Amino acid sequence: NAVSLATTTEENNPTSNPRETWSSRTAFLFASIGAAVGSFFVPYLFALFVVGIPLLLLEIAMGQFHQSGDVGVFGSIHTKLRGVGLASIMCGFFVTVYYVPLISWVVRGFVESFTGEMRSEWDDISGSEAVAYFYDEVIGMSTLGEDNKPTRIVFVNVIYLGLTWAIIGSCVAFGIKWTGRIAYITMGLPIVLLLVFLARAVTLPGASEGIQAYIGTWDMNILFDRPDVWSTAVSQIFFSLGVTFGVMTAFGSHCPRKSPAVENSIIIAVSNSAFSLISGFAVFGSLGYLKYYEGADSLDDVVKSGPSLLFGAYPSVLSTLPGGIYWVRLLFLNLFLLGIDSAFALTEAVLTVVKDTVIGRRVTNKQIVFGTTSLGFLCGIVYMTDAGLIFLDTVDFYVNFIMILIGFSKSFSAGWIYGMEEQIKVLGAKPVYAYIITTFGSIMVASLAWFGIRGDTTLWGFVVFGMTYGSGIYYIYRLLQEKMMEEPEKNWTMESLRYELTLRNVDNLKDTLADFVGPIPAIWAVLIKHVIPPVLLILFFNLAHAQTNELESEFGNYNGYATWPYQIIGVAVVFLACAVVLLGVFKPQLYECLSFDAEEGEHTITYVDAERGTTYKLEPDVVNETKAVVKEEEGSGYVKLEDEKGTASKPAAATTTAPSDKTIESSGYVELKDQKAGTTTSDEQVETNDYVEIPEKGRDVSPESSDEFVKIPKNIP
Known about the structure:
Blueprint: E1 3-7, H1 25-36, H2 45-66, H3 70-77, H4 82-115, H5 127-139, H6 155-172, H7 176-201, H8 207-215, H9 222-225, H10 228-241, H11 247-253, H12 261-294, H13 307-319, H14 324-355, H15 358-361, H16 365-380, H17 388-417, H18 420-427, H19 429-452, H20 458-486, H21 494-502, H22 504-517, H23 522-545, H24 563-586, E2 605-609, E3 616-619, E4 622-624, E5 629-632, E6 638-642, E7 655-659, E8 671-674, E9 679-682
Antiparallel strand pairs: 1-2, 3-4, 5-6, 6-7, 8-9
């Protein structure tokens, strides 16, 4: 391969230090699977295979390729897209802030099963009694005021919240290698406990009826009578797989660039689904037993959803078994381990983005962890009020909107914005923009018919979509015909122009990633560009159209909670995430502080493969393939490497020198020494089997063809 030199950009190599990697691939998989499971549901196959796995692969592969968090990854596509990455991290942080209080309630229940008054009362406790204990005593809801508004802070819960955040901080403070090692326990032990619960549940009397209700009863009408279940299924898949939170991008960034991203993504997704499926058998088998034990007429009399299932029905089942208190403790331990695993994964996403900034490079990992966990603790105090569960339920609902919007933004960025400048250069601006407007404009118009007009408007929506989309495609076809006539020397065909417009850019992304992360199926490019963005846009409008029992919009009236503080906080969370994305688009300079920027004496030169066409952004919106001029420095014994295309914004850092004949043994990398900083770095961004030798002083280096650039000679042992 021809080897050339290029300046490292802030998006592609956020630090001159080698990025910390997982202690092993298994550690990465355990941590990622642990981040994914814990939601206790069976995901819809459509959402899993059509939306979830492709987005999971996008996040892991992009994080792995760029060795950066979400802000750096999407900033590498375009500087105006840093807001997409930041909104993703914010979404993850919102979830973490209410997820950790939920874990802290579990911790309190576990502790009080040894020391509290419930120690002797768990034996043969009813589901309603267990729910009352958690709601009134643990969460403190017995003192709620008018309209269920908060009246006090439950200070004992504040202590448990601090303890839980301290445990999370301890899990992530020592770096990703220790996080991976901890995942062996926090993910491995729950798998063992789940199998124990499953084995016990399916052997109980009445279990078969519960399992029959779980997998043997299919009500297909609900898919049509309640179309919002499709939006809910996708948001559950996002929760389940851990996508749209920046978690998988962060985890992927700590994998070696050659790790098999497709294989890892499938293992994570399938493991998550298997865990959810097995959990369902354990839960419904137990609920079938509870129906038998209590002599109820149907499962509906004993099955409660949400926290009532978690803190009521399921503990009630376990308390009726011999040694019931021990089963309940095992349940709490299992919930704690699953919860803490997900929590430190969500926290790691925030830490990765902070560590990729200039500010993050100036402080230690422990300091960043302390700051992040302290902020999470302070923000979580609102959930330690007696209305904490209502705050949690409200924010959890509105986060669904953010996840779908972020999923759309990520797939749109990768499928449509990536390579757009090259598309415009080849095809012109009109066909490119017309295709975007045609695709998404027709969906928005059709959605207005589907969701904005009362009555059955399904057919009319498709008619409107067909007319709008067809008109736009006809206009684009005419533009491409004009292109063929204007440039006959290029031998364009309609098929080649159509490919340039519809798939070239995302195929280039697929091929660029595949050179490092392994083969990626061709269908992935089609899904990322032509399926996922339109589907998520429709599902967003679908979710926004959901109505309450009083036929009011659920957005702004969720569950009948009071407008202040609940609905206002929930709606504000959605608008804040949207504002973060839009600020990045219109004021990208606001987020420059979140990306790495070389300071004086810290410039690094990166070896890239010119034959593969690897490109780096040197200035906003300008992509150049950069080589370096090799010049001798008089009497220094060093060779000066300068980028003649320049980095005007960093003139003081634009010159780096390297030892005259120094190579790193058995690595294939050149050791570069920056005389301004007095540090030596080894670039790990480039994969090559060739050793590159910097010419010694006085060696003749011939210019390349007619330009001033030269390639560094290769020395193949």
